[in-house]
Design a protein that fits this description.
elongated; single chain; five-stranded antiparallel sheet; alpha+beta; 13 helices; 10 strands
Length: 396
């Protein structure tokens, strides 16, 4: 498979647009009320308090058992064999950092218990990817069993699917452990956001306060998942590079992409044609060509053309700060000189202030409607036109 065939594969089509879309989504998720909290929103205590409040029938949300019932529905869907009865958890108590009473040490992150039915649910919050303590889940489970409760489920909550609960020596406990990711990029994945929080949001659509709180918390879960929702793209790419010759083609593309600005600068200087108006030309960096000339009483004008990944810039300025007779001109005066010259050749409106060295600058951008080649051709024609206009005023 050659490089053209490699790039034209379905899995790589519009990959840039797809990646831009998920990056935009990630940036959008960073704007949420919790990100501005003085508490670190990545700390597990932060999330334990929020989740416990939502799951508590007596929580300040004033929705009674609604969110806890939806959570139990979610657990039963994930693990049908659990068969957790919602009636067993009506008016349950929900606490955080519940101290163990029979084991040597430990605190349960979120503990849901019902003193009437003597049923319980344990939630171990690893949303910050904290290290597992020795037999942590086993100690929690044994302690609650010793209190006389029937533990229906042990939830092991992580930011994404990169971590799962360690196996224990207790077979009954292992069967009750449910690994849950806070968020993954898979829209059909039963992570906490898709499987439970979305249901809570939908049920709260007519309650502005609850809806807003849940929506903002959902954005936070997406933000901290560390997956940035680009997993589908990575999966596609992984499959492609594992085809015959895929890795070699990917490495070749990476190499040439890293050298693309150098190549474009090479093509530019080869095609530029007549530049005799300038006394000197040189390559300041591998991706930048500089032209120097004196056209007005030895004022050192300079034109720099810089090639970047998706833009090309042209700077028209005074070399060495416009130094004449060993004196450097102020930036305001340099701007005045440059703007007058651009006005004289009829191009002032094309340029912007605050260019390099106090001069003025213009940029050419790659867009959906303009390819890199389109932009490079446009730059070449513009610089040739620029030279021609300077040449004409010097001939007067």
């Amino acid at each position: 498979m050659n490089i053209r065939e490699f790039i034209n594969q379905d899995g790589l089509k519009d990959i840039g647009k797809r990646l831009k879309a998920v990056e935009d989504e990630y940036l959008n998720n960073t704007f949420n009320v919790f990100s501005f909290s003085t508490k670190n929103p990545r700390r597990e205590e932060f999330h334990s308090e929020i989740l416990a409040m939502l799951l508590n029938p007596d929580g300040i949300h004033k929705q009674n058992n609604l969110y806890l019932d939806l959570f139990i529905d979610y657990l039963n869907k994930l693990r049908p064999k659990l068969k957790i009865n919602k009636d067993d958890f009506i008016n349950s108590e929900v606490s955080t950092e519940e101290s163990l009473k029979h084991e040597e040490k430990g605190r349960i992150d979120i503990f849901i218990k019902n003193k009437k039915s003597m049923k319980a649910i344990i939630i171990e919050n690893k949303i910050n990817n904290a290290t597992d303590m020795d037999n942590q889940l086993g100690r929690y489970y044994n302690d609650i069993i010793a209190e006389g409760y029937d533990v229906q489920c042990v939830v092991y909550l992580t930011p994404n699917k990169n971590k799962t609960a360690p196996r224990t020596d207790n077979g009954d406990l292992n069967n009750k452990i449910v690994n849950i990711a806070a968020y993954t990029n898979k829209h059909n994945d039963n992570n906490l956001f898709n499987g439970w929080l979305q249901s809570c949001i939908k049920k709260s659509e007519y309650n502005k306060d609850c809806f807003s709180f849940l929506y903002q918390y959902g954005k936070l879960l997406k933000q901290i998942s560390n997956m940035a929702t680009d997993r589908d793209i990575k999966d596609n790419f992984y499959e492609i590079i594992n085809q015959k010759g895929g890795l070699e083609n990917a490495q070749a593309i990476s190499k040439y992409l890293n050298e693309l600005e150098i190549y474009r600068a090479d093509i530019f200087i080869e095609k530029i044609g007549e530049y005799s108006i300038f006394q000197k030309k040189y390559r300041h960096t591998t991706w930048q060509w500089c032209f120097e000339l004196n056209i007005d009483t030895k004022i050192p004008y300079k034109l720099d053309v810089r090639f970047f990944r998706d833009i090309v810039t042209i700077d028209f300025w005074l070399n060495d700060g416009g130094k004449t007779n060993n004196e450097t001109l102020t930036e305001d005066y340099q701007k005045e000189i440059i703007s007058k010259k651009l006005q004289e050749i009829g191009l002032l409106s094309d340029f912007n202030d605050n260019g390099f060295g106090g001069g003025m600058w213009k940029k050419f951008c790659v867009t959906d409607a303009k390819t890199i080649k389109d932009v490079d051709d446009e730059v070449l024609k513009y610089v040739e036109m620029f030279f021609e206009k300077l040449r004409n005023i010097c001939a007067k």
